[in-house]
Design brief:
With 187 residues, the chain is α+β, with helices and mostly antiparallel strands. It contains 8 helices and 7 strands.
């Protein structure tokens, strides 16, 4: 098993030449597997965002949610993201069929840090999900809620991400959250 991703190879680029090298902690936190801390975070997370891009470079970021742990940690190198029936546009799946690289960022409400997982995705059918005993795990399911297929992500990078963006945005501010609930729908 690879202990860390070789981030030193990434240091010689125009950005580090312009802005400087990363500090030791961020430079060494990127692992080529799921650490115990990362696995625990994923098991507690009810929300992630899946990022993909197609062969033409067009990107998509799709929120995925369910009960905490709806994304299944299969082992130190693999996670499974169930696909719950939604808008049936399948942008992420089209992208993955053209370019298997995918990124996930996991959130836990109220937690300052996030977890990032990058790797290679493979589409798995309902039969494989049934074999793995993957079931619908969501809050407030409607009549259309069912697991259709899933994504098996082979981990290439996994790490906790610093809380600065969430802190800078005051994202988990309870007063703001309550005020936003009273705003008219904007989309």
């Amino acid at each position: 098993m690879v202990d860390t991703v070789d981030v030193a190879a990434q240091f010689d680029n125009r950005f580090t030449r312009q802005f400087g090298l990363p500090k030791e902690r961020p430079a060494t936190k990127v692992k080529g597997y799921l650490s115990d801390q990362v696995k625990d975070f994923i098991r507690q997370s009810p929300m992630c965002v899946l990022a993909t891009s197609g062969a033409d470079g067009r990107c998509d970021a799709s929120p995925k949610g369910g009960n905490p742990g709806f994304v299944k940690v299969l082992d130190d190198r693999r996670v499974l993201v169930p696909d719950v029936a939604g808008n049936k546009l399948f942008q992420s799946y089209i992208n993955i069929s053209e370019n298997p690289q995918a990124g996930l960022i996991f959130f836990i409400p109220g937690a300052g840090e996030t977890v990032r997982v990058n790797g290679t995705a493979k589409i798995v059918g309902k039969e494989e999900l049934d074999r793995l005993e993957i079931e619908l795990e969501v809050q407030n399911p409607d009549e259309n809620a069912k697991v259709l297929q899933g994504l098996l992500i082979e981990v290439e990078e996994a790490y906790s991400h610093c809380p600065r963006a969430l802190a800078f945005s005051d994202f988990w501010n309870g007063e703001r959250i309550e005020a936003n609930k009273r705003l008219p729908r904007r989309v």
